[in-house]
Amino acid sequence: MKNSKEDRSQFLRIISHIRAMFYIFIDEVKNIFKDRGVVILVILAVLVYPLLYCSLYINETLVDVPVAVVDESHTPKSAEFSRHLDATRDVHVAEKMATMQEAEQVFKEGKVHGIIYIPADFDKKLNKGEQAVVSVYSDMSSFLYYRAMVLSTNYVVLDMGEEIQVARLNAIGITGEQQAMVSDPIPYESVILYNEGMGFASFLMPAILILIIHQTLFFGIGMAAGTAREENRFHELVSSSVHRGGTFRVILGKSLDFFSLYLLWSVYLLGFIPWLFNLPHIGNPFTLLEFVIPFLLASIFFSMTVSVFVPSREIQMILLLFFSLILLFLSGISWPQSSINGFCKAFSWLFPATFGIQAYFKINTMGASIHKVGFEQIGLWIQTAVYFATTLLVYHWQIKKSIVKSKKDLEE
Amino acid sequence: MSTNILSAFIKTFKRELKRIGSRPIYFLGTVGVMFFCYIFFLTFMKEGQPIRMPIAVVDFDNSSLSRQFLRNLDATQQAEIVTHLNSYTEARKEMQKGNIYAFVVIKDNFEAEVMANRRPKMTFYVNDAYLVAGSLLLKDITYMSELTAGAMKQKVLKAKGMEDSRIMGIIQPISLDTHLIGNPWANYGVYLLNVLLPGVLQIMILMLTVFAIGVELKEKTSRLWLRTADNSMFAALMGKLMPYTIIFTILGIIGNMLLYWYMGYPMNSHIGWMFLTTFLYVMAYQAVGTLIIGITPVLRDGVTLAAFYGLLGFTYAGFTFPIEQLPYIAQIFSELFPIRYYFKIYVNQALNGLSIGYSVDYLIALLAFTVLPLFVYIRLKKAAIYQNYPIK
């Protein structure tokens, strides 16, 4: 009998805890939607940014970059070279010039992004059986121009070269098996994995999508905290009316609504958007879910910890917006992780975005299973634990401060 | 009249200096952030190119030929063989884990087949999800394979008693002589930092311009601000913005000096042109910032709008993905970003070393941005007087 009574009271206590938590949850949801600034960040920005950026980068690779050909050879062979070049997907022969000076002029005017110079002796050398040299000048303002130039000219050189090679070998009586041996003794095949089209959006957007989650949470939670502080009489983060439930409950209540909101957003950002824009999306949905949970938790608690130090609603974004860029580079998707020095690497482990971008990249672009991202996964769970503890600590400190203040206020 | 405006301007200027000293945000948002970024990015990319990126090999042959090839490959600048694996599956797993960016598979009996003229195939796998690492490694491995095959061909043809000039004509009838204009070693730092650092600068200019004006409205000190300027909005704006023009121009020029002098990045015309560009660039962004807070005289909304616009600047500079390859409608908007003109001037002057005549249009475009505050001049003045916008 006594036992069941105890059970009952235990049960009631749990119910009351859950109810209190639920109220904080509802309160916070109301707070989020009341605050236009926060709504813009955690609703509008999350909705619009991926659509905008994916549309901007919808052309994954460069097509028909205009180039100038300077043909001093004026022969059918050099014309063939120019024609082959024009036929590639990457470049387009926009200008045909007689002299290098003319070509330089159109380059300076920005009308072409590369110059191909076919010297006067091009045909002569080919006829004499020697090596002909073609010069390529590439605009380096964007590396994608450079890549388009290299890909297209290499292709033409190999294609035309092969024909000439066969003719020359035939001429000296090397044919059949032996000819193949001379022209290609060790054939090689290069297989491009995971981003077969070498697309720019396929490479950059996965990182941007994770950053959108991380940064809108970071600034959204920060702004909400700033608002709470500004609206509160004592410039407190947590008003005395809410903290009755204890620090633990306040934090769970607050984090739960961001968590549930962003769980929905994750479906949109990490599932729907890659599908819609045909970005790599070979990840298993359950693996993605398994990764998203600690990533969101770590990001939320990280943001909550930092938010305690935000004095007013705008300051965090003013001072830390630039950090989005730092996070992108620290993640190691453009500048490879192997080339990031130890200090920067350790620094990067402070931020959930680092593990988040790597893990998402591996799962959704490269089809990795959850234990292949074990390192990132453990990192995220450690961050979740550590940042939960720090949140607890700083919130506890804030609440204590507010109790002391309100007591003082009462005494006065 | 003009002396009145001048004294009003000086009073506002002095008031703003005091304000800058009163809160840490001004120092942190100017000198603090910019120096952090200068130090961070310049150390981050001081190598110029990522070197010694991890790759793996699956060498089923383990012959002197295969080992020679792998030694050569390991000696290239970009690739470092970190592990020898036993199967394709294993290598693929390592790649998914992100431990390697590429791997080479050499078949069993490779050497024997080469010797027997049976032309064994070599396969390499490159992870291009990491676009930079992938592209660089693909180039390195292809180059090494070509070199190895070339040596082989040379040997065969030499045995036939052929002379060297003819041999090259057969191995490679047409060769390419590639010149990289302005950045001959394809240095990534040159390519990225010349735009990234001004990119951070524009974000900070936008943010602090919006803040410096917006905070007066938010904290209802705007009437005092206007009164200090003897109710001249012109003097009020000039006096408020000028301190930041000076600070940001100095910070921007320090950035120029770090890139072109300290790092030795290409500067193929006079560096003075970049100093001038930086000055105009700072003013252009201050004008845009003023426009933004004028459109929405609510600090919070202004900051959000400025953040959105500032981040788009990185796309619209056009250095990663060229503007003319964006969808057509998106291309039009590039005109609205001063960073676009900065980038063009930098390419013309620093990278390509053209005469300044080619950049005059862009310099004028930057200057043209400075008329933007006129569009919100009255609106902003009213907001300052009536303080009739929500402060949250």
Specify the overall morphology of chain B.
Answer: elongated
Quaternary class: heterodimer
Largest interface: A-B, 117 and 114 residues
Low-confidence stretches of chain A: none
SS elements, strand count of chain A? 5
Strands side by side in the biggest sheet of chain A: 2-1-3-4
User: What radius of gyration of chain A results from the CA coordinates?
Assistant: 31 Å
How many distinct domains of chain B? 2
Mean pLDDT of chain A: 86
- Which stretches of chain B are low in confidence, meaning pLDDT under 50 for 5 or more residues running? none
Structural class of chain B: alpha/beta
Q: Main β-sheet of chain A: number of strands, strand sense, barrel status?
A: 4 strands, mixed
Order of helices and strands of chain A: HHEHEHEHEHHEHHHHHHHH
Q: In total, how many domains does the architecture of chain A comprise?
A: 2
Into which percentage range does the β-strand content of chain B fall? 5-15%
Number of helices of chain A: 15
Major sheet strand order of chain B: 2-1-3-4
Number of helices of chain B: 16
Please give a structural write-up:
The complex is a heterodimer of chains A (412) and B (392). Chain A is of the alpha/beta class. Chain A has two domains: 14-57 and 197-411, no CATH class; 65-183, 3-Layer(aba) Sandwich (D-Maltodextrin-Binding Protein, domain 2). Chain A contains 15 helices and five strands. Chain A is elongated, with a radius of gyration of 31 Å. The model of chain A has no long low-confidence stretch (mean pLDDT 86). Chain B has two domains: 2-46 and 187-386, no CATH class; 53-171, abc type-2 transporter like domain (abc type-2 transporter like fold), CATH 3.40.1710. A four-stranded mixed sheet of chain B has the order 2-1-3-4, with helices on both faces. In chain B, helix 3 links the parallel strand 1 and strand 2. In chain B, helix 8 runs parallel beside helix 11 and helix 10 runs antiparallel to helix 11 (271-295). The radius of gyration of chain B is 29 Å and the shape is elongated. The model of chain B has no long low-confidence stretch (mean pLDDT 90). The interface between A and B is large, with 117 and 114 residues. Strand 4 of chain A pairs parallel with strand 5 (174-181) of chain B.
